[in-house]
Amino acid sequence: MQEVVQSVERTLSIVEVLSEYDEGLGLTEIGEKVGLHKSTVHRLLYTLMVKGYVEQNESTNKYRLTLKLFELGSRKVEKMNIVNIARPILKELMEKTNEVIHLVVREGSDILYIDKVESQNPIRMYSKVGKRSQVYCTAVGKSMLAYMTDKEVLNIWQNSNIEKLTEYTVTDFEKFKEVLGKVKENGYALDEQENEIGIRCTAASILDHRGEVCSAISISGSIISFKEEKIEEFSKMVTEFAARISKELGYKK
Known about the structure:
Elements: H1 6-18, H2 27-34, H3 38-50, E1 54-56, E2 63-65, H4 68-78, H5 81-97, E3 100-107, E4 110-117, E5 132-134, H6 139-145, H7 150-158, H8 173-186, E6 189-192, E7 199-207, E8 213-222, H9 231-248
Antiparallel strand pairs: 1-2, 3-4, 3-8, 4-5, 6-7, 7-8
Helix pairs in contact: 1-3, 2-3, 5-9
């Protein structure tokens, strides 16, 4: 097993800390948060500044991230054809439901939001492009897990930080397998306030030209607007729209 390069690990730790503070942090504050001496932090920050990833405010002397990381990440997303293909379909789905529409991909035991179409609904949920959530407690995650083998599901479960995020979160594996059975039967997955209190989601997976799950979409909204009586209607819509995106990606039944 290869060893971690200490200077790279420390540099990335600084970047991760700065990403949490829009107004930036001072040298001492950064050192305290990453557990490094000021001289070491200063040296690493200088390198980040030279490469354009960090800038220093002349008035406050605080350091903050530039948009360079965002630019690099955006290039990667732009190259993902699914975002370009799905975007107009996601917009149409939002217009029909007036709820937030998400497009996600899976990375290990996490799902990563790669696109989001905001609704006009005044009640907003906390989500953004680039945000990660765990697979087991989200509708999009469960919709993708339903296509996997029992061995794959168990592996993801064992590598997840299983915790009861709300009173509705399923944390028992046997019960979770029963949930996935219903997802397979219905063709869509539900999140009934399992990840966030007051938020309901329905999701369906997207298949690529090989017939493999490559992503998923969801309709998400407050239980005030996304009422229980809308579950059947919205779930049917999310499966239809996911199928449309799959077809655009070359999937054939």
